[in-house]
C-alpha cells in the first residue's frame, strides 16, 4: 500500500497553496517608516536627506592619523564609507568590508559570487554604489544585484536581481529606492529593507529617474532628458506629487541634492534651491565645473566651485553669499560635510577644516598624498570622499586608503 | 569471413533504449524541476555560493539519471506529471505572484511550498487517476 494516495497528495497540494497564499508580499512586508535612523553616518552623505551634516556633533580640532586601511582594490564608482556605532562599512571594488572603527581591523567581508567565476577566472560582482546602513543590516549594490547583509557579520540576508546596472540607490527609513529596468521599461523600485519585498514600482513616463534625497515621507528624484527635471514622489506609493523642469545641463557624473525642512537643494551646472512644493527660490551659478559637493546646515548651503578653487557658504533663504574661502586642490567631485562648528572640504590629498561662520581655516589634513603614491586622485570618483565627523574621530576615504584621524576633542 | 567478437544486439538495444529514455527524461526534468533548482540556487547564494551554469545542467542530469534508473512506471504517466508540473508552476507564479526577492528564507520557504503543492497536484492527477480513460475510451472498455 503506497503512502502517496491521491487523497494525501491533494491534501498536501491544498495545504501548500493555502500557505503560499497566506505568505503574500503584503503580509510579510514590514511597516514603512520614514525616520532618519539611529546610525552615525548611514549613507554616502549622511542620512537620506543628503545634507552631509551632523550639526549637533563637535568634532576634534586637529587631525593626526590614528589608523589607515589600504583597499585591496579601490572601487571605481563608489564613495565607499558608512558608519554605525560599532562598524565602519567600506566598499572595496568587489567586496563590502566591516571594519572596527577604533583600530581599523577587518571584522568581516562579503563578496557576491560571480556565476562564471572559477579557479582560472576569479571574477566578482563589482561594488557599484556606496553602502547604506539601516537598522542591523547593510544595503549594498553589486552590479545588477541589490543585497542586504547583516551588519554584525556580513552574511547575505536577501538579494534582488535586476537586469540592468543601477545608477543610484537611496535609503529612506526602512525603504531602499533605486533605478532599474523591468522588461525594457525604466522603473523606480522601492523595496522593504527588512525582507527585500517590493513596496512599489513606478514606471511613470518610462523615464530614467534617479533617487537623490528623501524626508518626511517624500522622495525626490532627478530625470535626465533634453531637459532635466526634479520630481517629488509620495514615498508610500511612488506616485509623483509634482515635477519641475530646470535649466542647464545635468551632471554626467550623477546628481547631488539635499533636502531640509526649508527646501530642496539640487546641484548641477548651477545650484538650485526649490521649496518643498517645487517652486524655484533661487539659483546660484558657480562656474561650469561645479564640484557637485554640497552640504546644508546652520541655515547655510555649502558648495564648492572647483573652477575658482573656492568653498562658498550661501544663505539658505536667499542664496546670498555669506563667505567664500580659497581652497587649493579641491577634489572633484569630492565632498563637503559639516558638524557643529566646522565645514570639511575634501581635497585631493585630504581635507581642509573651515570655520562654519567665517570660512577661516581651522586645521587641515594633507597627509594622504605621499601614502597614495602615484594614484591619480583627481580623476577617480572615489578619490576623496566626504569627511565623516564624530566626537573623537574623523573618517575619510582618500585615494586608495581609508583614514581615521583623531585630535583634541 | 569471420569475426572474433559477436555483437550482443539485445544488450546494445537495451543501452540504446536506456539512453533514449534518459534523454527523454532529461528534457522532462528540465521542464518540471527548473523552478525547484532555482530555489536551491537561491539557498546556495544565501550560504555564499553562486552555482556556475554547468552545475544547473549537472543537477538536471543527476535527477534525470535517478529517474531513468529508478522509475519503473509508465513513461506516459511521467510525461503527464512533468508537463503538469511545468504548467502548474507557471499558473502558480501567475496566481500567487512572486516576491522578486531571492535568498530570504521566507521567500525560499514560500517558493518551496508552492512547488510541493504543484508537484503533489500533478502527481495526484498523473499517477493516481484514470486519465488515460479520458483520452482513450477504447482502452477502458
TrEMBL record, chain A:
Which Pfam families does the entry link to?
PQQ_2
Which InterPro entries did the record assign?
A: PQQ_b-propeller_rpt, PQQ_rpt_dom, Quinoprotein_ADH-like_sf, WD40/YVTN_repeat-like_dom_sf
* Domain (Pyrrolo-quinoline quinone repeat): residue spans on this chain: 64-208, 229-389
Q: Polar residues: which segments have biased composition? A: 369-383
Residue ranges for the region (Disordered) are 38-57, 364-388
Record-given protein name: PQQ-like beta-propeller repeat protein
Q: Where does this protein come from, organism-wise?
A: Natronoglomus mannanivorans
Its organism's taxonomic lineage begins at: Archaea, Methanobacteriati, Methanobacteriota, Stenosarchaea group, Halobacteria
Automatic annotation (TrEMBL), chain B:
Q: Where are the transmembrane segments?
A: 12-34, 54-71, 78-99, 105-127
Q: What are the entry keywords?
A: Membrane, Transmembrane, Transmembrane helix
Q: What is this protein called?
A: Uncharacterized protein
- Which source organism does the UniProt entry give? Natronoglomus mannanivorans
Amino acid at each position: 500500500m503506497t503512502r502517496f494516495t491521491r487523497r494525501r497528495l491533494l491534501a498536501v497540494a491544498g495545504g501548500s497553496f493555502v500557505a503560499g497564499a497566506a505568505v503574500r508580499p503584503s503580509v510579510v512586508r514590514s511597516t514603512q517608516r520614514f525616520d532618519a535612523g539611529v546610525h552615525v553616518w548611514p549613507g554616502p552623505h549622511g542620512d537620506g536627506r543628503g545634507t552631509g551634516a551632523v550639526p549637533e556633533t563637535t568634532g576634534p580640532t586637529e587631525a593626526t592619523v590614528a589608523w589607515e586601511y589600504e583597499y585591496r582594490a579601490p572601487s571605481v564608482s563608489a564613495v565607499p564609507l558608512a558608519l554605525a556605532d560599532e562598524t565602519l562599512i567600506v566598499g572595496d571594488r568587489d567586496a563590502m568590508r566591516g571594519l572596527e572603527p577604533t583600530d581599523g581591523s577587518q571584522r568581516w567581508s562579503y563578496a557576491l559570487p560571480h556565476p562564471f567565476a572559477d579557479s582560472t577566472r576569479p571574477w566578482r560582482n563589482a561594488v557599484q554604489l556606496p553602502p547604506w546602513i539601516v537598522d542591523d543590516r547593510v544595503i549594498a549594490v553589486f552590479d545588477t544585484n541589490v543585497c542586504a547583509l547583516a551588519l554584525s557579520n556580513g552574511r547575505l540576508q536577501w538579494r534582488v536581481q535586476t537586469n540592468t546596472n543601477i545608477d543610484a540607490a537611496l535609503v529612506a527609513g526602512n525603504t531602499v529606492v533605486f533605478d532599474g529596468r523591468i522588461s525594457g521599461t525604466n522603473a523606480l523600485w522601492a523595496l522593504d529593507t527588512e525582507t527585500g519585498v517590493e513596496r512599489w514600482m513606478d514606471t511613470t513616463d518610462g523615464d530614467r529617474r534617479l533617487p537623490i534625497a528623501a524626508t518626511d515621507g517624500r522622495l525626490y528624484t532627478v530625470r535626465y532628458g533634453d531637459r532635466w527635471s526634479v520630481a517629488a514622489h509620495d514615498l508610500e506609493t511612488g506616485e509623483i506629487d509634482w515635477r519641475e523642469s530646470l535649466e542647464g545641463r545635468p551632471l554626467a557624473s550623477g546628481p547631488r541634492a539635499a533636502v531640509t525642512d526649508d527646501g530642496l537643494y539640487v546641484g548641477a551646472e548651477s545650484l538650485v534651491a526649490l521649496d518643498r512644493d517645487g517652486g524655484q527660490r533661487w539659483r546660484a551659478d558657480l562656474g561650469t565645473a561645479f564640484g557637485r559637493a554640497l552640504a546644508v546646515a546652520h541655515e547655510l548651503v555649502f558648495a564648492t566651485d572647483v573652477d575658482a578653487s573656492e568653498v562658498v557658504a550661501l544663505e539658505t533663504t536667499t542664496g546670498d553669499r555669506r563667505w567664500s574661502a580659497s581652497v587649493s586642490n579641491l577634489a572633484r567631485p569630492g565632498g563637503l560635510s559639516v558638524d557643529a562648528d566646522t565645514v570639511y572640504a575634501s581635497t585631493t590629498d585630504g581635507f581642509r577644516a573651515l570655520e562654519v561662520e567665517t570660512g577661516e581655516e581651522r586645521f587641515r589634513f594633507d597627509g594622504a598624498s605621499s601614502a597614495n603614491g602615484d594614484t591619480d586622485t583627481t580623476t577617480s570618483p572615489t578619490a576623496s570622499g566626504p569627511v565623516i565627523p564624530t566626537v573623537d574621530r574623523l573618517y575619510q576615504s582618500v585615494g586608495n586608503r581609508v583614514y581615521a584621524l583623531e585630535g583634541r576633542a | 569471413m569471420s569475426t572474433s567478437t559477436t555483437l550482443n544486439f539485445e544488450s546494445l538495444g537495451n543501452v540504446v533504449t536506456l539512453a533514449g529514455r534518459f534523454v527523454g527524461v532529461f528534457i522532462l526534468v528540465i521542464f518540471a524541476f527548473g523552478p525547484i533548482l532555482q530555489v536551491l540556487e537561491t539557498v546556495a547564494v544565501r550560504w555564499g555560493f553562486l552555482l556556475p551554469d554547468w552545475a544547473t545542467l549537472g543537477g538536471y542530469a543527476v535527477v534525470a539519471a535517478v529517474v531513468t534508473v529508478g522509475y519503473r512506471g509508465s513513461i506516459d504517466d511521467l510525461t503527464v506529471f512533468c508537463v503538469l508540473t511545468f504548467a502548474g508552476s507557471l499558473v502558480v507564479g501567475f496566481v500567487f505572484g512572486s516576491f522578486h526577492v531571492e535568498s530570504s528564507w521566507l521567500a525560499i520557504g514560500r517558493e518551496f511550498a508552492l512547488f510541493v503543492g504543484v508537484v503533489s497536484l500533478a502527481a495526484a492527477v498523473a499517477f493516481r487517476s484514470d486519465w488515460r480513460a479520458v483520452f482513450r475510451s477504447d482502452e477502458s472498455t
